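re: ur question from yesterday

yeah so i grabbed the chain u mentioned. its 298 aa long if i counted rite. heres the sequnce exactly as i have it in my notes:
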Amino acid sequence: MTDHATDAATDAFVAHRNLLFTVAYEMLGSAADAEDVLQETWLRWVGVDLDQVSDPRAYLVRITTRQALNRLRTVKRRREAYVGQWLPEPLLTTPDVAEDVELAESVSMALMLVLETLSPTERAVFVLREVFDVGYDEIAAAVDKSPAAVRQIAHRARRHVDARRPRRTVTPGEARAAVESFRRALETRDPQSLLDVLAPDVVLVSDGGGLKRAALRPVVGADKLVRFYLGGSGRVEATITCEPTVVNGSPGLALLLDGEIDGVMAMRVEDGRITGVYYVRNPEKLTRVETETTLTLR
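ran it thru and got these structure tokens back, copy pasting raw so excuse formatting
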């Protein structure tokens, strides 16, 4: 490849890198795996004759999707042996992502967990069609299916996701207010204030990966969640602080013990109360959070 062709390939890849990362992350639930997919995409992209490429964005998305599918089939087997509950690797995102309701929902912990229940091909089709509005013909080329088959897969995946996603999307302001109330109650260790902001059937999913203390199964119910947090916090002698942040497109908290990040919480808020808490403590999933303060997804 000539220097001019290399420059053109680099410019196209950089221009679409955030999009490609988001596609890979939504398919894999892991920023580390998404970065590996981007590296593989780049290695294949620099070997392409750009004179034969009419739409670099579509071509790059196709390469990324195929690489992510290959990796997804591998990581699914790895997750079957995961200790305790598995949660996606959290991303600290910029506040403007939270204002983009569709993008914020597409990377939310709640939706990412729903996507985990899809087959690899269903997940790829859903992400490309529902999140990025990629045409059926382009998706078909990416997943090696006919356009007619892709339409059927998209319909099946959409129906599956719609049956499990939250019924009502709150505004960013409503979500921030609920998370702020939760933060104050947690820092003051006030059980009644926690109960006031939690929905009665709230669900806590915590991920320690066998490396940090976490509930091995979901904790269901406000009373149990309060006991889990205040009971666990009561045994910690370090100073606990909760820093407001934006996690996976929605208001969340970074929990610090004596100034060191101990975990990240994402929340699902409905009707002004918290219905889902996703608490990532696995240190292997916090490396990116510790080194980056923001991530622009597009």
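noticed a couple things. The radius of gyration is 20 Å. also The longest strand covers residues 260-270.
anyway ttyl
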